[in-house]
Amino acid sequence: MKKSLLLLFLLSFFNLSAQNEPSSSNRILQNLQKLNTLGSVLYIAAHPDDENTRLLAYMANERHYRTAYLSLTRGDGGQNLIGTEQGDELGLIRTQELLAARKIDGAEQFFTRANDFGFSKNPEETFSIWGKEDILRDVVWTIRKFRPDIIITRFPTTGEGGHGHHTASAILAVEAFDAAADPKRFPEQLKYVQVWQPKRLFWNNFMPSRDAKTDLSGMLKLDAGTYNALLGESIGEIAAKSRSQHKSQGFGVKITRGEMLEFFTQLKGDPVKADLMEGIFSGWSRIANGGQITLAIQSLISGYDPFHPEATIPKLVEIHSMINKIDDAFWKEIKGRELEDILIQCAGVFADFTAADHAVSPGQVVPTTFSFIFRQANMVNLLSMKATGIVDSVKFKNIFKNKIYEEKVDLTIPADISSSNPYWLEKPHAAGVFVFNDVLLTGTPESKPTISSTVTFSINGIRITRNYPLIYKWVDPVKGELSRIVQVLPKVTAVFNAPVFTFTSTDSHTVIITLNGNGDSLNGELSLNLPEFIECRPKKLPVTLGKNKSQTYSFILSVSPTREVKPEMRTDVTVELKDLQTNKTQVLKSVERISYDHIPIQTRIKDASFVLVHTSMIRKGINLGYVVGAGDEVATCLINAGYTVTMLDEKYMKPELLKAFDAIIVGIRAFNANENMGTYMPSLLEYVKDGGTLIEQYNTKNWISNVKVQPGPYAFEISRDRVTDEKATMKILVADHPVFSFPNRITQADFDGWVQERGLYFPEKWDAAYTPLLECGDPGEPAKQGALLVADYGKGKFIYTGISFFRQLPAGVPGAYRLMANLIGLGKYDGK
Ligand SMILES: [Zn+2]
Question: Which of the two ends of the chain, N or C, has the fewest CB atoms closer than 10 A to its terminal CB?
Answer without folding.
Answer: C
